[in-house]
Design a protein that fits this description.
The chain is of the alpha+beta class. It folds into four domains: 24-196; 227-365, no CATH class; 387-648, P-loop containing nucleotide triphosphate hydrolases (Rossmann fold), CATH 3.40.50; 660-737, Arc Repressor Mutant, subunit A (Orthogonal Bundle), CATH 1.10.10. The protein has a nine-stranded mixed sheet with strand order 21-20-24-26-19-27-28-29-30. The longest helix has 43 residues, at 183-225. The radius of gyration is 33 Å and the shape is globular.
């Protein structure tokens, strides 16, 4: 908290702004009219020299939310130079498909030495990096939109919009001069921010436990000294004249000093006995502050933005919003601890107070818990897991599929649904039988779903009787299925919706439910693992109570070109923990396309186990290909709409179309010369084999085939690697014929 009596520190001094250097990254940014000027301005409330944006067109206040206050680079540069401003800045917005990173207080401005963790970020060398105006921080510009972070304790801020970054042009040597994708840098900084945030939460929990213990001790001491509540309070409790909630709110307003500094360490005390917390300290890009006053609490940052309460808040609202508590009761209990109150003394009744997820209810439920002794049994008599399709769909469990957009996850879900309803192995896996599948798609209209289903049926030669009566399809545009919402009161489960889903499953004897995408079945923050955990476990409970398999199709966050892992699913930690099976879909990468001789690699994707370290090599994994199917719904029976349909695709086997005669020809070619094992050598043995098989090593697919054939033939003894000396008497590895091929 700023001390109003402390002397104001001197204003930071910078050299006069004379423009930015000519670098590719800066030329790219200069091509957009999204520039502002800036100058150091004293912020009385925060007690710091701040950098508010300036409108370079008229010298007025700039705003990252108002494009009318942005200007072309040449206008901003001319204004900053002419008016002696500190510099210029670039406004980030999602339409750029770019992100900005700010690392604070990680650099010695005198020596240029970086803190060790910041040096790691620079050493990735993935994208343009520059030094901040103060010389104490770093700026990165990154290609693509990434998940934002702002954790002051971690010194990491990642933004995609709603902010501007000062631009100095002080390029960090060793980093690119272009703006590029930076997947390793992003992952590293996000992990650092998340780790520090988690550590802060743990520290808070420990502090809260200590405070709770102190409060309990104070309460016990008070019990020893007094007979109980006053007669007035006893009358209020019995007559209902005053509720527990109202009492907590009033006491909190009457004694702000007891709890506000603990919740907001940077809050500034006002002359009229209240507090103000700046939007910057709240981690948001809004102009106005949060005011906490004995007469009431108001968030001026949202009061004119359509807020239903015009910015008005209660102490319980504020605690629930800015502290790691889930329910109003937990927020009220925390306030009681800070105020030195016992909830029971001000009207809390465990048998009557609050909804079923309040602490009182949880304590009642906890009282009924008991440890169940394990009963020894015959292992062979335990029922097998009831797999419905492959080793992914299983009754009474949730399974999860994670993939980025456009790979084919919805097409795969539909194809698998038809495989299960038909009981046929159209994709390679044999279903347990012809089962009943309910496919719910929260994004596409019913007409589009009809196109997809019928295209899949046509491609795989399925008839009406293979599908009708066992496939159920709903569009989220017609039938919403929102199980859970996150409100100011906490996580709210839509019990009628849950019961309707279970009733529908039972009435139609559904065996498999596919929810595509998972995000459309809830309205909670995807990055809140606690909230996602409750949604995922609710689906698991539905699966268990109805005996069906539930598949959740989930979006992955953007990885800036890197392959998707299970951890890239939003809220993935909680979601994967609640699932029996998890898998990921990745489009074929350029190296794999080269090995397989595939030209249109984006039509191919592979399915891997959710554990990245279990992924097999490309030739041993499961591959699919999107094939185009015409519906024939055009004018006069013309092709009409084309729909991508998932088909099974087999990784090319190098032995396909290779006979024993081909092997003998290769052996004869090798035996006629002296050939090296090293593929870089001018006498690589692959040249002899390619010539014998009439393959061209200029064709990447042919070259990969030769390399894989050689590997197989060496392993089977058809060729052998021997050591010898070349013409310069250097020891080298040579390849000779081993066992001659026989019919």
């Amino acid at each position: 908290m700023a001390d109003s009596a402390a002397p104001r520190p001197p204003k930071p001094q910078l050299p006069p702004f004379t423009g930015l250097p000519d670098l590719p990254a800066l030329r790219e940014l200069q091509g957009r009219s999204k520039w502002v000027a800036w100058e150091y301005t004293w912020n009385e409330k925060r007690g710091v020299w701040d950098k508010p944006p300036l409108n370079a067109k008229n010298g007025g206040a700039g705003s990252t939310a108002d494009a009318a206050t942005w200007a072309p680079y040449h206008t901003a540069a001319a204004f900053a130079s002419r008016c002696g401003q500190a510099g210029v800045g670039y406004v980030l917005s999602p339409d750029d498909e770019q992100s900005g990173i700010d690392l604070d207080k990680c650099r010695n401005p005198e020596s240029g030495e970086l803190q060790a963790w910041a040096q790691v970020a620079v050493d990735f060398g993935e994208t343009y990096t520059e030094v901040s105006p103060s010389g104490r921080g770093l700026r990165f510009f990154v290609r693509g939109l990434v998940e934002s972070r702002k954790v002051d304790a971690a010194q990491v801020e990642i933004y995609t919009g709603g902010r501007y970054l000062t631009v100095t042009g002080r390029h960090v040597p060793g980093t690119p001069t272009e703006i590029r994708a930076a997947p390793r840098l992003i992952a590293y900084l996000q992990e650092r921010a998340d780790h520090v945030k988690a550590a802060q939460a743990q520290a808070f929990e420990r502090a809260r436990d200590l405070e709770r213990n102190k409060a309990e001790k104070r309460g016990a001491a008070n019990d020893d000294r007094s007979p109980g509540p006053t007669e007035k309070r006893r009358r209020e409790q019995s007559s209902g004249e005053r509720s527990f909630w109202d009492t907590v709110k009033d006491r909190a307003l009457a004694d702000l000093r007891a709890w506000v500094p603990n919740l907001f360490p940077t809050a500034q005390r006002t002359s009229d006995g209240g507090y103000r917390v700046s939007s910057h300290d709240l981690g948001r890009d809004l102009e106005e502050d949060l005011s906490l006053h004995p007469d009431g609490i108001k968030d001026f940052g949202v009061h004119d933005m359509g807020d239903p309460n015009d910015g008005g808040r209660t102490a319980i609202d504020i605690v629930q919003e800015y502290l790691t508590v889930r329910t109003p009761a937990e927020a009220a209990f925390w306030l009681c601890e800070q105020l030195g109150l016992r909830p029971e003394d001000i009207g809390w009744r465990r048998d009557r107070q609050g909804p079923s997820d309040e602490p009182g209810f949880k304590e009642t439920a906890a009282a009924s818990l008991r440890a169940v002794p394990f009963t020894w049994c015959d292992a062979s008599a335990i029922p097998e897991r009831q797999w419905v399709y492959g080793r992914h769909y299983v009754r009474k469990f949730v399974s999860v599929t994670v993939a980025p957009g456009g790979v084919g996850k919805s097409s795969l879900a539909i194809a698998e649904a038809l495989a299960m309803t038909s009981g046929q192995s159209i994709l390679g896996d044999m279903p347990s039988g012809a089962v009943r599948v309910w496919y719910w798609n929260g994004e596409d209209p019913m007409e589009e779903l009809q196109r997809r289903v019928m295209a899949t049926a046509l491609r795989h030669s399925l008839a009406r009787e293979d599908v009708e009566g066992r496939l159920f399809v709903n569009s989220g545009r017609d039938t919403e299925m929102v199980l859970v919402e996150q409100t100011r009161a906490g996580i709210v489960i839509a019990v009628p919706v849950v019961e309707a889903i279970k009733a529908t499953i039972r009435e139609n004897r559904i065996d498999v439910v596919i929810i595509d995408p998972f995000v459309s079945s809830h309205r909670v923050t995807e990055n809140d693992n606690g909230a996602i955990d409750r949604v995922a476990k609710l689906w698991a409970r539905i699966a268990d109570e109805t005996g069906c398999a539930v598949e959740l199709v989930h979006h992955a966050r953007k990885t800036n070109g890197a392959e998707v892992t299970m951890e890239d699913g939003r809220g993935a930690v909680a979601l994967l923990a609640a699932a029996r099976s998890g898998r990921i879909l990745n489009v074929m990468n350029p190296e794999e396309a080269k090995q397989a001789g595939v030209e249109q690699r984006r039509l191919h994707f592979r399915v891997d186990n959710g554990k990245a370290n279990l992924a097999p090599p490309p030739e041993g994994t499961t591959w699919f290909k999107l094939a185009s199917v015409s519906l024939g719904n055009g004018f006069l029976g013309m092709d009409g709409d084309s729909v991508g349909v998932v088909t099974r695709w087999k990784w090319p086997d190098p032995l396909d179309e290779v006979s024993v005669s081909d092997l003998r020809a290769a052996q004869q070619a090798v035996s006629a010369g002296r050939w090296r094992e090293n593929v870089q050598s001018g006498t690589w043995v692959g040249k002899a084999i390619a010539s014998a098989l009439k393959l061209s090593l200029d064709n990447p697919a042919h070259k990969e085939k030769v390399k894989r054939l050689l590997k197989i033939w060496i392993s089977t003894g058809m060729f052998q690697v021997v050591t010898g000396f070349d013409d310069q008497r250097h020891e080298r590895a040579f390849v000779e014929v081993g066992e001659w091929a026989a019919d």
